[in-house]
Amino acid sequence: MAYGTRHTEPYGTHPRRALRIAANAELATLAVLLANLATVHLEPVSSLTGPAHGCAYLFVIAAVWRTGEARTATRLTALLPGIGGLLALRRLEQPYEQPNQRTNEQPDEQPDEQPDEQPDERA
User: Degrees (nearest 5) of the Cα angle 74, 77, 78?
Assistant: First the structure.
């Protein structure tokens, strides 16, 4: 979009962009928290990164649950801390194939073809 032009697309046409940003932020902040915990454990790092991680985590959950095309498994995947948002995005981007519906049509029946039995010539 060029500078000075109006945004004419309706609001919310790119909800996955915000979800992708939040999912990456959630994973990055979790990595920083765990690295800080495993090494020097600086209090300022924890007090800054902890709330940021919590906000990103909640945003990911809310964004996935608000997506109309998210199935139950995708919504539950978003609840996984750290990687759940990225996994939910992956599930949202995969096309959903409906399972085959049972129909009343019977499959074409083919007669059982048995090979002609040849008598054993070794006697």
Answer: 95
